[in-house]
Structure prediction request, 226 residues.
Amino acid sequence: GDSVTQMEGPVTLSEEACLTINCTYTATGYPSLFWYVQYPGEGLQLLLKATKADDKGSNKGFEATYRKETTSFHLEKGSVQVSDSAVYFCALSDRGGADGLTFGKGTHLIIQP
Amino acid sequence: DSGVTQTPKHLITATGQRVTLRCSPRSGDLSVYWYQQSLDQGLQFLIQYYNGEERAKGNILERFSAQQFPDLHSELNLSSLELGDSALYFCASSVVASNNEQFFGPGTRLTVL
Prediction:
């Protein structure tokens, strides 16, 4: 079945550092890929998405590129802020959303001032 | 605010009991998804409804059931509760079943004592 593997944290960085959170996937079809963010005590918010190979999703300074050849969707940001501290989930949707999302285990990101 | 509402926010109950969680999707969204988030299993898709009909099933236990009503709100029923059912339960909604973008509610935290 489908699966998502992402680096588990916590990942601790200083403010203004570069961020990469790795995500790789296994899917039978041609999935859409997502990054969701969960702030403490809140639900998940969609951060960005990509629906086909070589697409780049971007939002709030975060970027991720759908790499079919390496089955990856790594999340990157050039300069992180304290407010980026949260848990980040990589997810995929196979069968055009006809099933629910398959999530990775989440990466807890801590940004120190 | 995603526009998806869930009640109650917190629920504490005893083993063997039955509870009902409620979700109202965003205005105009026809599809509702239920997810369970626990420390050991992570985020798991339980079930999806589209316009009142069950559309897809994930890792939902037989003790759990759901329905979507004509006004599109949904309820997740959990019965014969066990300690291991303690988790955050999220509802998400999307415009149509094939739309990949899901909007999550704030969740219901269930504690089984």
Summary: The first strand of chain B starts at residue 5 and ends at 7.
